[in-house]
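Recall the central idea of this unit: under ordinary conditions, the amino acid sequence of a chain determines the structure it adopts. In this exercise we apply that idea directly, starting from the sequence alone.
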Amino acid sequence: MTDHANFLSIVEHSETVAARWAELVQKAVTDARERGVTLEPADCLDIRELRLAAMGNPLDEDNYQSELMGLPALSDAAMRKAIKEGDQEARAAAVADINRGKDTVHPDRQVNDAARRISRARELGIATPPPEQDSRSRSERLEALKGIASPAERLATARRWGLVA
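Accordingly, the structure predicted from this sequence is:
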């Protein structure tokens, strides 16, 4: 992230800029809330278009929306939604992003990195493979699980079928 000390100094010393900034921050927080994400006012500092509009430039709505969606909280929310809706390209992109750089991790940090990647995968909803699709109903699958002797195999099969998380 960038140091916004100069911009904040201008906001503190100009009532006009402060008033515009407050309106723009409220707009960004409201727009994020409509997308199901809670955005903190401090996060708005990372939206360049808002800072420019607070200084007097007209707000370019396209750039603003692009930068808003580029914030980590909103881009993660969009990614989670796409994955939940079954978008295989979004899922593949998320998996690639999570696994990026895992081969270059120092051996002393591999366990922590693996835990971080698993946590991130859970946040995005890709920690488990998507449930297998077949023609059997839920009750038929549960009946089929009764025939599996090994508890580990039974649990793995139930997870694969999407019966347990």
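Residues 130-165 form one domain.
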